[in-house]
């Protein structure tokens, strides 16, 4: 016996109970240890189930930074970072890709200046007001500014196109109107001509 025995401290993972070198484990605030494999499966589960966020041990949250540095894959690290942003955004302000097959989280509802949001994954556009598919070249039906214009238009007797909701003021002529979007509608009742066929009561009044 030469007297200089190297004793390397080993740490036991609370999940799998295997022992690891100090640099291989994450130390939780409660002084419990987790190996990389167990951190990875915890984080994986958390990206699929929001109720597991934030990840805790003994009711004390483990910081995202230490979790991230103990993950086994870069892809999971990126996904986890995105999920943290998503989970920290109030559910009522989360915008998801309108393409149901994609449904990627696109961020928080923007300030009123940005109308359209683009999905980083499939490049689909979402409306930054109603969170649905972007209304290319049209106003959002839920846009407050537009709602006010429409209310005002109704008061003064203007019509809105039943398809694109553009406000239209009739200058002269008959009730059959053609909007700039190509929709032919009745100025009397506001329905498309296919529906009204010029037969509504208001149509006769003009
Ligand atoms: Zn483990
Ligand atoms: Zn613990
Ligand atoms: Zn998408
Ligand atoms: Zn919209
Ligand atoms: Zn129109
Ligand atoms: Zn009509």
Structure commentary:
By secondary structure, the chain is α+β, with helices and mostly antiparallel strands. It folds into 3 domains: 78 residues, Herpes Virus-1 (2-Layer Sandwich), CATH 3.30.40.10; 37 residues; 47 residues, no CATH class. The protein contains 6 helices and 14 strands. The protein is rod-shaped. 17% of the residues are buried. It binds zinc ion (6 copies). The site of one zinc ion has 5 residues, from loops.
Q: What is the CATH class name of the largest domain? A: Alpha Beta
Ligand list: zinc ion
Helix content: 25-40%
- What is the total tally of β strands? 14
Strand order of the largest sheet: 1-2
Topology-level CATH name of the largest domain: Herpes Virus-1
GO molecular function: ubiquitin protein ligase activity; zinc ion binding
GO biological process, one term: protein ubiquitination
Keywords: Metal-binding, Repeat, Transferase, Ubl conjugation pathway, Zinc, Zinc-finger
Domain RING-type: 9-206, 13-50
């Amino acid at each position: 016996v030469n007297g200089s025995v190297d004793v390397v401290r080993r740490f036991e993972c609370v999940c799998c109970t295997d022992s690891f070198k100090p640099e291989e484990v994450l130390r939780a605030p409660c002084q419990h240890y987790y190996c990389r494999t167990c951190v990875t499966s915890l984080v994986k589960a958390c990206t699929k189930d929001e109720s597991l966020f934030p990840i805790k041990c003994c009711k004390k949250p483990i910081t995202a930074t230490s979790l991230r540095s103990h993950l086994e894959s870069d892809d999971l690290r990126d996904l986890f970072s995105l999920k943290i942003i998503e989970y920290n955004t109030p559910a009522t302000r989360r915008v998801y890709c309108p393409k149901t097959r994609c449904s990627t989280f696109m961020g928080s509802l923007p300030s009123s200046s940005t109308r359209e949001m683009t999905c980083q994954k499939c490049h689909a556009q979402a409306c930054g007001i109603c969170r649905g598919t972007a209304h290319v070249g049209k106003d959002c039906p839920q846009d407050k500014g537009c709602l006010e214009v429409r209310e005002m238009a109704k008061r003064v007797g203007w019509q809105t196109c039943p398809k694109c909701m553009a406000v239209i003021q009739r200058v002269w002529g008959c009730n059959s109107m053609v909007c700039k979007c190509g929709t032919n509608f009745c100025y009397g009742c506001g329905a498309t001509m296919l529906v009204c066929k010029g037969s509504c009561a208001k149509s006769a009044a003009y």
